[in-house]
Structure of Carboxypeptidase:
Amino acid sequence: MPCSQWKTLAFLFLLIFFIEVECSLSIFDKITQLPGQPQVSFQQFSGYVTVDEKKQRALFYYFVEAEIDPASKPLVLWLNGGPGCSSLGVGAFSENGPFKPSGEVLIRNEYSWNREANMLYLETPIGVGFSYSTDSSSYAAVNDKITARDNLAFLHKWFIKFPQYRNRSLFITGESYAGHYVPQLAELMLQFNKKEKLFNLKGITLGNPVLEFTTDFNSRAEFLWSHGLISDSTYKVFTSTCNYSRYVSEYYRGSVSPICSRVMSLVTRETSRFVDKYDVTLDVCITSVLSQSKVLTPHQVRDKIDVCVEDETVSYLNRRDVQKALHSRLVGVNRWLVCSDILDYELLDLEIPTISIVRKLIEAGIPVLVYSGDQDSVIPLTGSRTLVHGLAEELGLNTTVPYRVWFAGMQVGGWTRVYGNILSFATIRGASHEAPFSQPERSLVLFKAFLEGSPLPEAF
């Protein structure tokens, strides 16, 4: 055989080899079956994507394909907040994933979001959950910019493992401090696409998000007062003498003024430690998964949440057989935790508004939905609604859907308003800070409508 033919043949063999290797990378991450899991028809994957070879910084993910016809469904990335809390333990196993731990087994979540999409849960930043670095310095001075860059690098490399999703419609969603994570990641995606069209970003969804520090935090006083949790006199000093944004700002600078200390003592005493601030209607017996927003309530950070039931998720994810099935490992820590205790995050990033980034995304044609569980006093609906309306006015967006109720399961699911068919606000009636946890059916109806670009149901 002539040399040229040998070279051609060799090239073809190499090409086939690399294609097969690329297409089979995800096979190593495929989950055969999770311990105690009921039989399902969809595929699950989990494992690591290394975002920094030198320091061996690796992010852990859990990916669940859609229940029916995954090839036709969009890809959705879910991010939990904190900063420093797990999208696996909170998002996947407590909110909108396919299973929830119950004793030694997993039970199906009837309202799992993988009914409508291929769901990708990412434990971010490094040091959260099963994500790790072999260099402990990686856990120090972590900030929003580092997190956004790592998340972009993760997705870029994840598409190498799952090339079939490269051109798929992509949505990013999350809650709480993900009001920082999601817009910043989306902005980097748009910048990346100018060089190489990789991310087919179709929209972002933000649940009870931190978007603008002062507005979001200072709306707490009115919410607590209107729900009868604080007195008239305390409301007055909480809005004039020392508001909540001032207190948090002082707290994270290590210098709480005597006046703010007195005001917060009043607020804390009246609201009572026996009321869950993330859902003022819930009884106090809650699991530690609801501590994902602990950074947003700094006066409680040092207190261990008094749970009255076993934390099913923590117990399940710390089982050796579960970790083996997930292809996960513990590096530098003894236990998997809902929220990281090794991560040193730059908490003053909380004060940097991300509503301006949301504006850039809308101007770039990316649809945005902000939703609020209406029983959350931590990031109340009043602040989010004010920010969305103000943004619509800045952008000159006309109201395309007037403020109205929407329905789910033959009941009012919440209220909504849409601006310019690109910016939406919605409440989820009776929902907590973690809306899919407390109102799963209503959250799924909202999620489905956003993916489809359709209006929320006007009737049942």
